[in-house]
Amino acid sequence: MANRYSLWSLIKHGLKHHESWQPAWQSPTPRNKYDVIIVGGGGHGLATAYYLAREHGITNVAVLEKGYLGGGNTARNTTIIRSNYLWDEAAQLYEHALKLWEGLSQDLNFNVMFSQRGVMNLGHTLQDMRDIERRANANLLNGVDAVVLSPSEIRDIVPLMDVSSKTRYPVMGASFQPRGGVARHDAVAWGFARAASELGVHIIEQCEVTGMLIDGDRIKGVKTTRGDILADKVGCVAAGNTSTLAKMAGIRLPLESHPLQAFVSESLKPCLDTVVMSNAVHGYVSQSDKGELVIGAGIDSYLGYGQRGSPHIIEHTAAAIIELFPSFSRVRMNRQWGGIVDVSPDACPIITKTRVKGLFFNCGWGTGGFKATPGSGNVFAHTIANDAPHRLNAAFSLDRFASGHLIDEHGAAAVAH
Amino acid sequence: MLRIHCPYCREVREEEEFGYAGEAYIARPAAPEEVDDAVWGDYVFHRKNPRGWHWEQWQHVAGCRKVFVVKRHTVTYEIAGSWTLAEGKALYLSEEQS
Ligand SMILES: Cc1cc2nc3c(=O)[nH]c(=O)nc-3n(C[C@H](O)[C@H](O)[C@H](O)COP(=O)(O)OP(=O)(O)OC[C@H]3O[C@@H](n4cnc5c(N)ncnc54)[C@H](O)[C@@H]3O)c2cc1C
Ligand SMILES: [Zn+2]
After folding, report:
1. Chain B contact probe: residue of A210, A302, A405 with most B CBs at under 10 A
2. CA angle A396, A79, A179 (to 5 degrees)
3. Per-residue model confidence as pLDDT tens digits over A67-119
4. Judging by beta carbons within 10 Å of its beta carbon (0-12, 13-18, 19+), is residue A352 exposed, middle or buried?
5. Domain B3-25+39-97 falls in which CATH fold?
6. Chain A CB contacts of B48 below 8 Å
7. Any CB–CB contact under 8 A between B19 and chain A?
8. CA-to-CA distance for A387 and A389, rounded, in angstroms?
9. In 10 A of CB B59, how many CB atoms?
């Protein structure tokens, strides 16, 4: 049994020099058979397992992770959380996730450091401002908080930003979602893992899925580097590596995997207490609780599984940030890395059944899935448990690429992170 | 940074001169009136996205502006070669068959 975290437990274990804490999650040997196997121990996979156990009473579940928990995009992303998407289907799905974020630390008894410091999307042209007005109005109609800010209002919130008319791409205004913000990414993976493990879910690291066991039109289990494991249902949540898993089941998906980079600076005194994103100059920045500037931008244009990106993207991003924050030009950067994102044609996720009975996919979150982590796991667990989609993800099934009912968030939702 | 050979300019140039133009040799349905939505959906949206060798189109946007084909490894980023679309197709088809 994992420890329950509270002030009392801190004092109690403190008196024992913190040597009596239990591991946050167990590392069991795999069983021969599970009711459900989740492939991929990122935030989405762990959240799926947690909600399967907690909301659907399915506890004979294993999460199979080829590396270690949080080694994928979960802990490589820049943690921006918002729900101000344009189209109804997307806004409702991401808003469902945002509502879950608001109670998540209590729910998991694990501090995911969710900080609602607001997210600002800048407009630099008249057309940007028209799109922002339209999106903010659509957001309000969907019950998503949104305000449109003028340059002087932006200056009040972010004094360091250059909102003068002298810049090359003057800031004309912004949309602002006050309930948006950031969370601590690896705490999200650990928190879901701990809560799921406590409900009986097996979390199995260093276990790569190498094949699918399919009998006729039904899934029977998976082949892994630790032997065959049987299951009635298999859900794949493998972000950039999804196409590889789909191929094992003879399924083609509308996904392309690209490297996406981010970098962080040395720690600074607090200077930026919201998240700033710009589509036009193409960069975004926030300041972590440790004081680092967290900066990111766009994907490499080509396919890549190399978890690193092209240097010219970094140069372009740094230029964009300095255009907005001239004073950041003297800040030194500490670390840079890449993750592999699975981009779908309409920049919306695919949460779906497949033609193989009992085999499900949750993918296509691309550059912006961290914000959806609890919501994604919640509706995917529903889809797996009921063998039918939740109301909120029915529009996100694979057949939209045959019917043509795309949910085109590309370009509609400012920077896509 | 990729270094790509343009088969028209016959020179190796840096990645920034080129634009990526997607998977190469996607065959359009031969009988467009006869196939169903699923086949069209596959043609328009579904991609191989391999973890390994990939045949892909690049355009020399800051050079001759021509589109050509590159065979590149998506994990190591090694480039096996670049060809004009016509030259590459013969090679691609022979690989597909074997
Ligand atoms: C640089 C960067 C910045 C980003 N910024 C943001 C942002 O600001 N806001 C936002 O909302 N989103 C952002 N994203 C996107 C977000 O990170 C992803 O959409 C999301 O994390 C994907 O879901 P996940 O956490 O479950 O993925 P992952 O953590 O990648 O989980 C997938 C797991 O599957 C495992 N796996 C793969 N194949 C197999 C196999 N065969 N067998 C077993 N296990 C396997 C992997 O090892 C991995 O751990 C960003 C991404 C990157 C790379
Ligand atoms: Zn050329």
Report:
1. A302
2. 80
3. 999 899 999 999 999 999 999 999 999 999 999 999 999 999 999 999 999 99
4. buried
5. Folate-binding fold (3.30.2270)
6. 243, 252
7. yes
8. 7
9. 17
Show the tokens assigned to A145: 């908080």
Q: Where are the beta strands (DSSP E) in A158-291?
A: 173-177, 181-182, 202-204, 209-215, 218-224, 229-236, 256-267, 275-278, 283-287
Q: What is the pLDDT of residues A150-203, one digit of tens each?
A: 999 999 999 999 999 889 899 999 999 999 999 999 999 999 999 999 999 999
Structural domains of chain A ordered from first start = 117-179+256-343 (3.30.9.10)
Amino acid identity of A111?
A: N
Task: List CB contacts of B94: < 8 A, sequence separation 6 or more.
Answer: none
Residue B46 touches partner A, C-beta closer than 8 Å: yes
The token pair at A152 is 């002087």
Strand order in the sheet with A147-149: A147-149, A173-177, A119-123, A275-278, A283-287, A292-299, A256-267, A333-343
Residue written as token pair 């032997």: A227
> Smallest Cα–Cα separation from A261: which of A231, A227, A300?
A300
In ligand 1, which atom is closest to the CA atom of A40? 34
Q: How many whole angstroms from B59 Cα to the centroid of ligand 2?
A: 8
Which among B1, B41, B56 is the nearest to A310, CB-wise?
B1
What is the torsion angle, in degrees rounded to the nearest 10, for the CA atoms of residue A188, residue A192, residue A195 and residue A201? -160
Nearest chain A CA: its distance from B20 CA (Å): 6
Ligand nearest to the CA of B84: 2
Query: Measuring CA to CA, how many Å separate A404 from each of A68, A87, A276?
Result: 38, 15, 34
Contact A69, A156 (CB under 8 A): no
Q: Is A243 in Cβ contact with B51 (below 8 Å)?
A: yes
Closest residue to B41, CB basis, from A305, A310, A402: A402
Predicted ipTM of the assembly: 0.95
Tokens representing B1 are 């940074």
Instruction: Compute the distance between CA of residue A416 and CA of residue A398 in angstroms, rounded to an integer.
Output: 21
CB–CB contact A401 B72 (8 Å): no
Return d(Cα A377, Cα A55) in angstroms, integer.
11
Q: What is the dihedral angle through the alpha carbons of A90, A308, A297, A405, rounded to the nearest 10 degrees?
A: -20
Interface of B with A in 49-78 (CB under 8 A): 49-51, 54, 56, 72, 74-77
Predicted TM-score (pTM) of the model is 0.96
